[in-house]
UniProtKB/TrEMBL annotation:
It comes from Ciceribacter naphthalenivorans. It comes from the Bacteria. Coiled coil: none annotated. Gene3D superfamilies: SGNH hydrolase. This is SGNH hydrolase-type esterase domain-containing protein. One of its GO terms (molecular function) is hydrolase activity, acting on ester bonds. The lineage of its organism: Bacteria, Pseudomonadati, Pseudomonadota, Alphaproteobacteria, Hyphomicrobiales. Pfam families: DUF459.
Length: 393
């Protein structure tokens, strides 16, 4: 009995000790886990254990919430300082000459550039009548030959500028059938239409300016534009119009299409849109630059920016001047700048022949006598033997 009680007490003591050890292990593990959560373990801690910190870790900084800055609404002056300078439009006079611009979408850009070119000219008005998808091929869509006479009668232009052909690279329908593009029959019919369209202007006794097509990014379109420009030049010059070639302004020195090039001031700018067909604002102004010179020549003094019409309402006031204090004024005749007497001579140079020489030249003596005159003494060709009386004794 006593032995059984001893065994039971020993087992109880061992169980209690085991429970205490288990609690201690759990507490230690909790502390280790807490320490590990405060500082992550690295490779050195895994191999050699974590070093104790000499100094306690500083507390994390408190997040201070700063007030959000309020953006002030200010007027932007970037557009004012970087915008290109353009001439201020002048009010147009009632008797201003009108320039009629007709054609397709390229003509629309040409008219925009001409508006800017003549903005400071009160005697010139740009009147645009364009149809972006039109041409001389699809007469069923828009018949320019039937519409142009009415436009001329309405606008009464002083000059007509034509820019057309970018949409004409397609099949043509005629009374005899359909003609495929790039065939001889197509080019013959197209030249006939160009001539008939231009004669509407020249028969009305109005100056005609036909602007050629620029280069385009698609290579086949550029090649076709060269062929059409040759037709325009030949047909327009035949009926008395003027063909304006703009090709060099939109290609490089090797004749290749360019997107960026020189503007009218020589600055490098973007001339064409991303599609390689349409024109930017600088490209439109450059296209108009080629037609501007001919238009100004035809319009004459009406293109002057300082044009002022004087009438009874704006004549300057004439003031009566006091009598002059100068007495005995001697009047002289005006001096002619081309008067020969200005340089002390009465005749122009070459008016009279030069005087004849009195002594014959060596050449004349050789021809006449058959021998040259004796050379001067001491010259290299003086080969004569000295006389005895000249010898030194």
């Amino acid at each position: 009995m006593r032995e059984a009680g001893r065994n039971t007490g020993a087992r109880g003591w061992l169980a209690g000790a085991f429970a205490l050890a288990l609690i201690a292990v759990c507490v230690l593990a909790t502390e280790v886990e807490a320490q590990q959560s405060r500082q992550p373990r690295n490779l050195l801690e895994l191999l050699f254990g974590r070093r104790e910190q000499r100094y306690p870790e500083p507390p994390p900084p408190r997040k201070i919430q700063t007030p959000r800055a309020v953006k002030k609404q200010t007027k932007s002056i970037t557009s004012i300082t970087t915008a290109p300078s353009r001439p201020q439009p002048s009010p147009k006079i009632e008797s201003a000459h009108k320039v009629l611009v007709v054609g397709d979408f390229v003509a629309d850009g040409l008219a925009s550039g001409l508006d800017e070119a003549f903005a400071a000219s009160p005697g010139v008005v740009i009147d645009e009548h364009s149809n972006g998808s039109s041409g001389l091929v699809r007469t069923d869509y828009f018949d320019w030959q039937a519409q142009l006479p009415a436009m001329i009668a309405e606008v009464k232009p002083a000059v007509v500028i034509v820019e057309i052909g970018a949409n004409d690279r397609q099949q043509m329908t005629t009374s005899s059938g359909k003609l495929n593009f790039r065939t001889d029959e197509w080019f013959q019919e197209y030249e006939r239409r160009v001539t008939a369209f231009g004669k509407i202007v020249t028969d009305a006794k109005i100056p005609l300016l036909w602007v050629g097509l620029p280069a385009f990014r698609p290579q086949n379109m550029t090649a076709d534009a060269l062929t059409l420009n040759a037709i325009y030049r030949r047909a327009v010059e035949r009926i008395g119009g003027e063909f304006i070639d703009v090709w060099d302004g939109f290609v490089d020195q090797d004749g290749r299409f360019i997107i960026t090039g020189s503007d009218i001031n020589g600055q490098q700018v973007r001339l064409r849109g991303s599609d390689g067909i349409n024109l930017t604002a600088a490209g439109k102004r450059k296209l108009a630059f080629y037609a501007e010179k001919s238009a100004r020549r035809l319009l004459g003094d009406m293109t002057s920016p300082d044009l002022v019409r004087l009438d009874g309402s704006n004549l300057p006031e004439l003031l009566s001047l006091p009598p002059s204090e100068m007495q005995n004024v001697v009047k002289t005749q005006p001096m002619d700048l081309f008067d020969p007497e200005l340089d002390g001579a009465t005749e122009l140079l070459g008016a009279t022949p030069l005087p004849v020489a009195t002594m014959p030249t060596p050449r004349e003596q050789l021809v006449k006598n058959g021998s040259l005159p004796p050379p001067p003494a001491g010259r290299v060709d003086d080969l004569g033997v000295p006389q005895p009386d000249t010898l030194q004794k």
